[in-house]
Amino acid sequence: MLPSFRAIRRPNRTPFSRRRRTSTSESQSEKDSVTPDTQLPPEHNKTPVLTKTNLRQATRTRKGLLIFSSLLCLVSTVFLILTELGNTHIRPVLTSTYFLRIDLADLVPRTTPNSRLINSIARTLGLHDFYQVGLWNYCAGYKIDGIVTCSTPKQLYWFNPVDIILSELLAGATIALPAEIISILRIVRIASHWMFGLFITGIVLLALELLVAWTSLYSRWAALPNAILASLAALTTTAATIIATVMFIIFRTVFKNAPDLNIRANVGLQMFAFMWIGAACATVAWIIQMSMCCCCTSRRDVKTGRKKPLKNEK
Hints:
five-stranded antiparallel β-sheet; 5 strands
């Protein structure tokens, strides 16, 4: 008996030559389906051309912030210069700009017997009715005549009421001052020297910032040294303002609380306003310069391709 064989039907296989023709046709169809760049419509293939116009448009925000920052630096410089010049000469605006005003017109309280006579004697001995303190010197005057004299401005000036009053009195005349005032004079001297140096440094740094601030328009890296310069200017002006505010408010409190003397002391609101406006403007300018290190398109960003220029408007 002969063996039997069972036929197994396999799925149809495409011949190799036919498969090759099929894959070739599919790849050709894919190539045909992709439209070359040259066949795209003109509006899809058009790349913005870098011109001065669209370069200015791309950096318009950065330029606006830079102008605003420079304006703040200028305002801060003007107000700090007014702070520096305050109380240096007998001029309408300068004489009303002072840190502290001490009124000695009624040095002896009215409750004391013969207080008017004693006060008039003190004036005869050389005391003025009031004294005003500035950054460089002090001025003195009378209630009726106003300011009549100012001391010579000098560097690193500090307010020493003991020396001022004793220098105004006739030779051999003395006056008793509260012990609290004498005890803080050494601290006042150190704080005044720091305040003087910080105000001068702040004005110099702000002037330098005005000269080099425009370089922040070209690069983010160029904005970094400007931000450091602006931070130093803001730090010095703010520190000087805080020192002056705290020191002269303490002076006012000590004079007002003197039990044996009737001394009236007031801080100069105009001087304090000038200081704080200058410090605030310098601080805001520093924040803007810091933001330019990471924000807003610079010219270098557009030229290197990191930021695309705006399309030319028709």
